[in-house]
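Entry: DNA-binding protein HU
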Amino acid sequence: FETRERAARKGRNPRNPQQEIDIPASKAPVFKAGKSLKEAINEA
């Protein structure tokens, strides 16, 4: 896994859809396939 920066964005409050909320920037884990996994998939 590696981390990626997620940009700040606007969202909606699920309880009150008319209300806009600001979602701050954050870091999220992202899966990155290794060389051996890529080779195994390409051989199958």
